Amino acid sequence: MIKFPSKLVDILTKINARGYEAYFVGGCIRDAILGIETHDIDINTNATTEVLSELFSMYSPTVYETYGNLTFKLDEYNIDITRFRKEGKYIKHRYPTGINFNATLKDDIMRRDFTINALVYHPNKGIGDLVGGLESLKKKEMKTVGNAYLKLNEDYLRMLRMVRFSSKLDFNIEPQAFRILKEHYYRVASLGLSQIENDFLGFLDTKGFVKNALENPWLVTEIITELKEAVEFSQSNIFHSYDLFEHTIRVVDNVNTLELKIAALFHDIGKIKCKKENADGTFSFPGHSSESLRIMNRYFSEWNLDKHTKDTVRKLVLLHDLSIPMNYIEMKKLVSLNGVRFMRKLIALKRSDNLAKSKHAYYQVEKCDNYLMFLDRIEKEKPAVSIKDLAITGDEIDSAPQVRTRILNELINLVIEEKLENNKDALLKAAIRIRDAIY
Q1: Which of 3, 67, 155, 318 has the fewest CB atoms within 10 Å, i.e. the most exposed one?
Q2: Count of beta carbons in the 10 Å neighbourhood of residue 3
C-alpha cells in the first residue's frame, strides 16, 4: 500500500471535483512502491489546460498548451500535470508528428516507455496496472510497454533511458530488449549530444554504472566514441594493471560527485593519441592531459552543463597529472592559485586515479592523504593565501595603480613563503623596498 501526502492528494481532489479524471502516474508510483523518496510528481488527467490553469492559478503555473502540460512548484514538490494523449508517428526517431488529446487513460498508458513507468494510482481506486508494471517491479526487470523492437526504435533515446533506469535501480533488462539494445544501441549517438546529455550523465551518476560499463563497454563507448580504442589499450608500465578503458571506469568508481565522475571519464582519453614507446619498451603519454581536454571540449560544446561545472571539470582534467610537492608552503601556493575547494576536488581525482592503477602507485595514494592534511591545516589556521588576506590594502601603498598590483603580488608571495610576517608595519616596510627596487 502506498500513500501520498494530503497536499498532493488535494490536487487530484480539485480536478475530480470538476468532473474530470486525474491520477498520479509514472515514476512517482514506481518510487513510492520501491521506497525511494521523490519530489517529482506526475499527474495525468482529461481536464484541459484552461481548466487546470484556473484551478491552480495560485501557484502561478507554467503552461505548455501545445503539449497539454502545466507545471508548478508546491513546497518541496515539482508538480507536472499532463492531459491524456495519443501520439502520432515518430520522426527522426525522437519526436511524434502530432499529439491527440482525444484520448483515454489507457491510450496514455500504452504510449509510455517501460512497464515500471506505466503504473497509475488514485487514493480511492488504488494502483492501476494495465501492462504488468507490478510484476516487473517484483522481478526487478526493465521491460518495454508493448513490442520491444518497435518501442526502442520508435524513439532511440529510450534505449539509453532503459540503461539508465536499469543501472539506477539495479534491475535486469528483459532478455529480448537486451538483445535489441546490443544490436541497435549505436543509434543513440545519432540523436546528438545535447539530446542524450541528461540520460547519459544520469547513467554515469548511478550506482550500477561501473558494473554495467565493465560488463558491456559498448554502453559507454557508443556514446563517448573515443573510448572505443581504450578497450584493450595497453598502458604497459609498472604503474598500470588494467587497460585504459578499465582503468578509466575504475577511476569513476572511486569518486562520488558527478563533477568528478565526468572528469574521471575523460581524464586519460588523450592517451590514445599521445602514446610513446620508451627505450626500455614501456609506454609514456606526454601531453595527454591537454589532448584529453581537447576531446572533452567536443562534448562540452553541446552539453548544457553550467559554466562553473564545465570550467571546474576542464581544470581537473588539465591538472590531474600535476606533480604536487610534499610541502606545506607549496600547497599554500596552489591554494592561492586555485582555492581550497578546488584543491580538494583535484586531490580526490588524483587519489582515485592512483587507486585504479597497480600496487606500485599506492605510494601516491598515501601522498594524497597527506595533501588533505595540509588542506585541513590551511582551513584551520587560515594563513594569508591571497591579496585580500594581507593586513594592508592597495590604498595604503604610495605608488601608481599598476605598480601597487605588482607590489601586492610580491608581498603575498613573501607571506605565503613565510619570509615576511603578515602585519601592517612589516608589510609597509617591505612594500617600500619593493617599490624602490622597481623604480
Answers
A1: 3
A2: 10
pLDDT tier at 435 (50, 70, 90 boundaries)? confident
| Chain-centroid distance, C-alpha 277 | 35
pLDDT digits (tens, 9 = 90+) for 182-201: 999 999 999 999 999 999 99
Query: What is the three-class DSSP state of 52?
Result: helix
pLDDT band at 420; cut points 50, 70, 90: very high
In angstroms, the CA 110 to CA 130 distance is: 9
Q: Which H or E run contains 87?
A: strand 86-87
Band the pLDDT of 398: cuts 50, 70, 90.
confident
- CA–CA distance, 392 with 414 (Å, rounded to integer): 14
All cell numbers assigned to 124: 480511492
Separation between Cα atoms, residue 153 and residue 94, nearest integer Å:
9
90: left (phi over 0), alpha (psi -120 to 50) or beta: beta
- What cell was used for 216? 558491456
**Span of 131-135, 242-246, 399-403 with lowest mean pLDDT:** 399-403
Contacts of 20 (CB under 8 A, 6+ apart): 45, 46, 47, 51
CA–CA–CA angle 218, 214, 358 (5° rounding): 130
Q: From CA 133, how far away is CA 195, in angstroms rounded?
A: 27
Tell me the pLDDT tens digit for each residue of 1-15: 788 999 999 999 999
Q: What is this structure's pTM?
A: 0.92
Look at the block and give the residue holding cell 502540460. 69
Q: What are phi and psi of 118, to 5 degrees?
A: -115, 20
Task: Give residue for cell 506505466.
Answer: 118
Least Cα distance to 315 among 285, 287, 345 occurs for 345
* Residue-wise DSSP of 235-264: --STT--S-HHHHHHHHHHT--SHHHHHHH
Which of 43, 52, 37 lies closest to 80, judged by CA?
A: 43
Name beta bridge partners: 41.
79
For residue 249, which amino acid is it?
Answer: I
The answer to whether the Cα torsion of 240, 243, 244, 249 is positive or negative is negative
Q: Is 138 helix (H, G, I), strand (E, B) or coil?
A: helix
